[in-house]
C-alpha cells in the first residue's frame, strides 16, 4: 500500500462545530453530530485495512456505482468508529454489494428496511463489541458506530436520502444503526458464521435487510417447542400484517431461553427444523388481519411458509442473562433480499 492520495473535495472550516454545521446544512449526516473526516483520520482508516484510497470495496449491482475504500473510510470516521473497526465496516459493505442482498431495492423501498449486521469470530471481542445486555441498543461504541457507518455510507455514497432515493414510508430506528455481535462465549451452539460456511475461528460478518425487531417473552415453560411456538407466533404475525413472502428470518435468543434449549439438547438445527414446520399461515387467516379482500381472491386454504427451507432461519445467540426474552427480526422482502455472510478482510 502506498501513501493514500485522497480525491474527495476538501472543505476549510474553523473548528469541529463548524464542520458539523457544514455537514448538517448539506444533508451529509443522519441528523446526529459527526466526527470531521480529516485527511489524517481517513488515511489512518485506510491503513487499518491496507487499502489505497481508490481501491474498490464493491460495486452496487443496479446502478453500477463503484464504492472506493476512501468513501467507506470517510463514512467510518464520520460515524465515530476507531480505525480497528474499519475491517468490519468494509466487509459489511462488500457483502451488501452481493446481488442476492438487493442493496438498491432495500435502500429505495417504501418498506423502510435497515441493514442488520451480525459479527462473529475473534474481532468481536478485539474491538469491544457487545453481545449481551441491551444488545440491540446503546451498550458499545463498536456496535453503535459500525452500524451508523453503514447508514452514512448509504446516504452519502449511494444517495439514500429520505424522500429522494429512500422512499421509506416510516422507516425504523435501525436506520440509525443496527449492529450486534453473537454471544459465542455464552452459547452452547455453533456460531452463525460457521453454520453459514466460514471456518471456525475466522472473523466474519452477516448482513440482512430487515424490518424492526419484534421482542417476545415466554417465562412459563421449559418445553423447547412451547418456547419456539412463541417465536413462531411473532413470525406468523409478520406474515399476516406485513409480508407473506418466504425468506430469511432472524431469531435472536437470549441466555435464559438458550439454557432451556441446551438442557433439552436442542441444537440450532433442531430450532430451525421445528420453526420451519410451524411458521406458516393459511391464506384465509388474512381475514383476521383486516385483509379479507386479499384472502378471498383465490384458494383460501393455500398454506404459506415463512421459510423456504430450515436453513433460511438465522439463529443468533445474543442478549442478557436474565428474563425469558428473545426477538424475531423479519426480512424486508424475503424473496428479493437474502442474508449474506462473508469473512472479514477476505
What is the strand and helix layout of this fold?
Layout: H1 16-25, H2 39-48, E1 56-60, E2 65-68, H3 69-79, H4 86-96, H5 103-108, E3 114-120, H6 123-126, H7 141-156, E4 179-181, H8 192-195, E5 204-210, E6 214-217, H9 224-241, E7 249-253, H10 255-263, H11 268-278, E8 280-282, H12 292-295, E9 303-305, E10 313-317, E11 325-329, E12 340-343
Parallel strand pairs: 3-4, 7-10
Antiparallel strand pairs: 1-2, 3-5, 5-12, 6-11, 7-11, 8-9
Helix pairs in contact: 2-3, 3-4, 3-7, 4-7, 9-11
Key structural traits:
2 domains, four-stranded mixed beta sheet, globular, 346 residues, alpha+beta
Describe, in plain words, how this protein is organized in 3D.
The protein has 346 residues and is α+β, with helices and mostly antiparallel strands. The protein has 2 domains: 1-209 and 335-346, no CATH class; 212-330. Helix content is 33%, strand content 16%. It has helices at 16-25, 39-48, 69-79, 86-96, 103-108, 123-126, 141-156, 192-195, 224-241, 255-263, 268-278, 292-295; strands at 56-60, 65-68, 114-120, 179-181, 204-210, 214-217, 249-253, 280-282, 303-305, 313-317, 325-329, 340-343. The strands form 4 sheets. A 4-stranded mixed β-sheet has the order 4-3-5-12. Strands 6-11-7-10 form a 4-stranded mixed β-sheet. Strands 1-2 form a two-stranded antiparallel sheet. A hairpin with a 4-residue loop joins strand 1 (56-60) and strand 2. The mean pLDDT is 95.
Amino acid at each position: 500500500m502506498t501513501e493514500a492520495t485522497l480525491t474527495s473535495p476538501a472543505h476549510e472550516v474553523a473548528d469541529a462545530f463548524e464542520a458539523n454545521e457544514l455537514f448538517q446544512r448539506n444533508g451529509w449526516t443522519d441528523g446526529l453530530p459527526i466526527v470531521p473526516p480529516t485527511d489524517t483520520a481517513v488515511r489512518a482508516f485506510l491503513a487499518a485495512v491496507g487499502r489505497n484510497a481508490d481501491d474498490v470495496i464493491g460495486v452496487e449491482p443496479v446502478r453500477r456505482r463503484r464504492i472506493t475504500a476512501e468513501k467507506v473510510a470517510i463514512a467510518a470516521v464520520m460515524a465515530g468508529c476507531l480505525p480497528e473497526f474499519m475491517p468490519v465496516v468494509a466487509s459489511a459493505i462488500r457483502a451488501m454489494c452481493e446481488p442476492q442482498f438487493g442493496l438498491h431495492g432495500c435502500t429505495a423501498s417504501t418498506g423502510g428496511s435497515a441493514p442488520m449486521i451480525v459479527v462473529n469470530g475473534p474481532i468481536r471481542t478485539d474491538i469491544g463489541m457487545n453481545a449481551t445486555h441491551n444488545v440491540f441498543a446503546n451498550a458499545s461504541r463498536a456496535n453503535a458506530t459500525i452500524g451508523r457507518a453503514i447508514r452514512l455510507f448509504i446516504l452519502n455514497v449511494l444517495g439514500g436520502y429520505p424522500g429522494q432515493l429512500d422512499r421509506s414510508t416510516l422507516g425504523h430506528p435501525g436506520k440509525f444503526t443496527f449492529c450486534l455481535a453473537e454471544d459465542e462465549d455464552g452459547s452452547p451452539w455453533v456460531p452463525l458464521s460457521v453454520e453459514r460456511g466460514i471456518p471456525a475461528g475466522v472473523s466474519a460478518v452477516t448482513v440482512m435487510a430487515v424490518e424492526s425487531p419484534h421482542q417476545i417473552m415466554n417465562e412459563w415453560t421449559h418445553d423447547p417447542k412451547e418456547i419456539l411456538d412463541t417465536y413462531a407466533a411473532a413470525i406468523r404475525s409478520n406474515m399476516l400484517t406485513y409480508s407473506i413472502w418466504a425468506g430469511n428470518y432472524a431469531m435472536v435468543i437470549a441466555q435464559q431461553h438458550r439454557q432451556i434449549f441446551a438442557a433439552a439438547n436442542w441444537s440450532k438445527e433442531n430450532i430451525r427444523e421445528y420453526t420451519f414446520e410451524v411458521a406458516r399461515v393459511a391464506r384465509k387467516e388474512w381475514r383476521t388481519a383486516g385483509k379479507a379482500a386479499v384472502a378471498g381472491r383465490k384458494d383460501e386454504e393455500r398454506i404459506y411458509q415463512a421459510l423456504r427451507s430450515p436453513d433460511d432461519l438465522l439463529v443468533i445467540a445474543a442478549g442478557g442473562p436474565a428474563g425469558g426474552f428473545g426477538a424475531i427480526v423479519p426480512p424486508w422482502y424475503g424473496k428479493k433480499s437474502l442474508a449474506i455472510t462473508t469473512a472479514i478482510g477476505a
